[in-house]
Amino acid sequence: MNRAILIVVTLGCIAISEPAWPQKKVLTFQDALQIAIKNSVLLNQQKNNLTLSEMQRTASYAGLGPTLSVNGGATKVNGNTFNQNTGEVVNGVFEQLSGSINANINIFSGLSQFNQVKRSVNLLDAQSYYINRTLQDVINTVSIQYLTVLVDVELLRIAQENFDVLKKQLEQVRAQVELGSRSPVDGYTQDSQTKAAEIRALQAEITLITDKGSLTQTLLLEPTEQFDVAKPDWDVNMIGSRQIELDVLFEAALKNRGDYLRAKKSEQAAKYAMNASRGGMMPTLSAFGTLYSAYNKADGDPNVRPIGDQFRTDNLRKVYGLQLYIPVFGGNQNLQNRTAYVQQKVNYFNTQTLTKNAEIQVKTDVVRAYENFNLYKKTYTVSLEQLIAAEMAFELERERYNLGITNLVDFTQANRILVQAQTDRAQAEYRLLFQKILLDYAIGTLKPEDLD
């Protein structure tokens, strides 16, 4: 009875001491993309900045139109006041209501506002391209990390299978040593090889945990959330049969790469900003108009006109005209305007350099992706041939070893070559699977909906 109670208590303590990890779930590649797009800090920030750019564009368009304002006031004065109805100064209580409508429109200011509109439109386009490229950056980052975890899982499986095979082989060798058919040296050698395989399996598991942590951080998942990854249902042979031409890729990249298009739009925006700043050194012409009226009343005045007559006739005043401003010499102000223009001009030249740099970067990325795609196709084909040869060599060497024709060193070497071939084949297959993503990322046509 006491022993049964002890067992129950022990099991309870073990259950309490074990960490309460959530049950593992399978995280598909599409799930990872959707989570990353939803949680990406940079992508969400740039979407918020897009709202600001849209508002700035609207404000620049509004600057092309007239300004209109309505003013009104009511005053009551006890004392000497000039009564504009009678043209006299009265002493007493005097009341006045007044109102005016004012309008002003810029006719010409060196096309400054027009260039500001063009600048804001190009900046909005640049921000849209930046968001598109940021989205592709997120997809590319998740793809690389997801691929890394997939490879880690496959390498861990290979390492564990190799460890299991060597462990069974160790049992056989020990039995043969006890029977005297094998030298004790073979037992020690096999034991060392088995321990080495166990270490490689543990190292593969450590690598998997580390790379899973990086993917978890990118997706902003809870660190305690356990998950497995699933191999995408893509046909590696279909991907490997894709035929591409470098010139076509160049043309497509310059039409679609968000970072390059953003650089071009930023260059255009800088050009219009430079032209807008030139307006500060040119004459300006504007039109203005004011419609004013008022109602005046002095206490005790028997001749006060009705409020309607005063507003519509007596005190109605219309003022309109043109105003021309020609900067001739303004000292510090002229110098500030010229400095602003030079600053925008330098900024425009700098953006031209950035555009050229972006173009070179695009072409470099395309060449790299193109060459890698062709090399990974060859690597995958060679890895399949290597694996077939290694499997045949291992089977023959195992038969020779079991028959006592060959020694343990040759058998161990054949097993090591087989494991390396399995590793090379797994890495080549998974990397070729993801080459489509890397290639589309290089030419700027990568979209989440195309990765189903």
What attributes does this structure have?
single chain, 452 residues, alpha+beta, four-stranded antiparallel β-sheet, two-stranded parallel sheet, 12 helices, 67% helix, elongated
Distance between the termini: 60 Å
Mean pLDDT: 86
Task: State the shape.
Answer: elongated
| SS-derived structural category | alpha+beta
Low-confidence stretches: 1-21
| Strands in their spatial order, largest beta sheet | 2-3-5-6
Q: What would you report as the Rg, rounded to the nearest angstrom?
A: 40 Å
Structure commentary:
By secondary structure, the protein is of the alpha+beta class. The protein contains twelve helices and six strands. The strands form two sheets. Strands 2-3-5-6 form a four-stranded antiparallel beta sheet. Strands 1-4 form a two-stranded parallel sheet. Helix 4 packs antiparallel against helix 8 and helix 4 runs antiparallel to helix 11. The longest helix has 71 residues. It is elongated, with a radius of gyration of 40 Å. 27% of the residues are buried. The N terminus is likely disordered.
Secondary-structure topology with pairs:
Blueprint: H1 2-17, E1 25-27, H2 29-39, H3 41-62, E2 67-83, E3 88-108, H4 112-179, H5 184-219, E4 227-229, H6 236-240, H7 246-256, H8 258-278, E5 284-298, H9 307-314, E6 317-325, H10 332-402, H11 408-433, H12 435-443
Parallel strand pairs: 1-4
Antiparallel strand pairs: 2-3, 3-5, 5-6
Helix pairs in contact: 2-4, 3-4, 4-5, 4-8, 4-11, 7-10, 8-10, 10-11, 10-12
